[in-house]
Write a structure and sequence with these properties.
Structural class: mainly alpha
Number of strands: 6
CATH topology of the largest domain: Tetracycline Repressor, domain 2
Order of helices and strands: HHHHHHHHHHHEHEEHEHEEHHHHHHH
Largest sheet: 3 strands, mixed
CATH class of the largest domain: Mainly Alpha
Radius of gyration: 30 Å
Strand order of the largest sheet: 1-2-3
Distance between the termini: 79 Å
Helix content: 55-70%
Number of domains: 3
Length: about 450
């Protein structure tokens, strides 16, 4: 049955809230009967934990498990506190081993151990094995469920074994071939199995150059590999080369999404992983540090301008162009740093070497500087009339563009070399730095030429 199209709007939310208040189970069941579990997940974010549990208890257990698995980690941790151990066990028993391990990692140790003791034997063994790994490496990301075949089997034997193993595997794209010691030898596509002679030996049709990842590899590296080679799934091997699991594309999408959110928050000057609905204190704590640094930078800028009080008093028009200089320097710096950060996180970009990179940056900055200086000179000439200050402002702006591009390029490279996230250089850090740099260049140019 195809899930119905679902639209979450205020009118529907209010009607659903009324049904929850009156415990109208018939309306709730009828409304959600053919709705995709992902849409139900989005709906439940609108209600508190007790109301959401009431809704879920009206749905089939398989749908309930799917929805709880789709909840974000923070929401799920709070949500599961109102479930007892038996209820959580029923849900976890229906999940793939990697999803089950993720949920158990979020629970208190006592609760987690109680649930593990109640799990089905096969799943229990798989989950215990997965819990040994850190959640940010391939071993913690992988699922134990996969389809594998021995290299000496015939195609007929392989197909028969697929039918048996596929009962516990929800999605599979290929059969991994191993020897009698479970060492990964290669893979065979389902298409090749279907088209091959039934008596063919599997080792005669396997692809040996299979891409695999090690259990200790970081999740970001796994995501880069799967993206680079356009893989739907990738096998995971231990240090001996033995096949121990697989990672599917849906798990990698989660990693990419989390990485993008982390980069976005860092570039915005947010120091913690926070959501809009987190507490006021946590949101304040995450945002305040870089705001304070910005204020400090502004105070330093004001003090710096005080050094040139005589020039400002002599030619008051000097102060008119301070916002222009600071804004241009900040924008140029952010553009440059953003491109460098993008190149550092893109595995397909070849490192051109520092000097070649800087030469390219200088060339781009030179052209941009000339263009912007010419535009500013022309506008100031039209607005303020012929004046030597017009030329000084244009010259200062030219050098601000050059130096801001250099700082925007070199800062993320240095941070990356020191082991810090280079995205730090694409937010308030680079803006504050280039504000000060721009002011310094501007007033130094004025001091020398006027």
């Amino acid at each position: 049955m195809t899930p119905v199209e679902f639209e979450l709007n205020k009118e529907f939310r209010d009607r659903f809230q009324d049904a929850l208040n009156t415990r109208d189970s018939a309306f709730i069941r009828q409304t959600l009967e053919e709705v995709n579990p992902a849409d139900i997940t989005a709906l439940l974010y609108e209600f508190n934990a007790e109301e959401s549990k009431y809704v879920l208890d009206l749905l089939p257990l398989e749908t309930r498990a799917k929805i709880i698995n789709d909840l974000d980690s923070d929401t799920r941790k709070g949500f599961l506190t109102i479930y007892n151990t038996v209820e959580i066990t029923q849900i976890v028993n229906l999940l793939d081993s990697d999803d089950a391990a993720d949920i158990l990692n979020e629970l208190p140790i006592k609760t987690s151990e109680e649930i593990i003791a109640l799990l089905d034997a096969d799943l229990r063994s798989q989950v215990i094995d997965l819990l040994r790994y850190d959640e940010n490496v391939a071993g913690g990301l992988m699922a134990k469920e996969l389809i594998k075949a021995r290299d000496h089997w015939t195609v007929v034997q392989c197909v028969d074994e697929i039918r048996k193993q596929a009962e516990n595997v929800t999605k599979f794209y290929a059969v991994y071939v191993v020897d009698d010691n479970d060492k990964l030898l290669g893979r065979v596509s389902l298409q090749k199995l279907i088209l091959s002679d039934p008596r063919t030996i599997v080792k005669d049709i396997l692809e040996e150059d299979v891409v695999a990842v090690e259990t200790y590899m970081e999740d970001r590296e796994v995501a880069e590999i799967m993206s680079k080679y356009d893989l739907e799934s990738v096998p995971v091997v231990n240090v001996q080369g033995h096949l121990v699991g697989r990672i599917t594309i849906d798990d990698v999408v989660d990693v990419i999404t989390e990485q993008a959110e982390e980069e976005r928050q860092i570039m915005s000057g947010i120091t913690e992983d926070v959501e809009e609905d987190d507490s006021v204190w946590r949101n304040t704590r995450a945002r305040l540090p870089w705001l304070l640094i910005g204020i400090l930078g502004g105070m330093v800028s004001a003090r710096f301008m005080g050094f040139f009080e005589a020039e400002i008093a002599r030619i008051t028009a000097i102060s008119f162009f301070v916002p222009l200089i600071q804004a241009t320097g900040g924008n140029v710096g952010i553009q440059s740093s953003s491109l460098v950060v993008q190149s550092l996180v893109s595995p397909g970009i070849v490192d051109e070497g520092l000097w070649k990179r800087l030469l390219k940056v200088f060339s781009v900055a030179l052209l941009n500087g000339i263009a912007l200086a010419a535009v500013v000179f022309a506008i100031t000439w039209i607005v303020f009339g012929p004046d030597s200050l017009n030329l000084v402002v244009a010259i200062a702006l030219f050098f601000v563009v050059i130096f801001a591009s250099f700082i925007g390029t070199i800062t993320p490279l240095i941070l990356n070399q020191l082991g810090f996230n280079p995205a730090l250089a694409s937010g308030p850090f680079i803006t504050t730095t280039n504000d000060l740099l721009g002011l310094g260049i501007y007033f130094l140019t004025i001091h020398l030429l006027l």
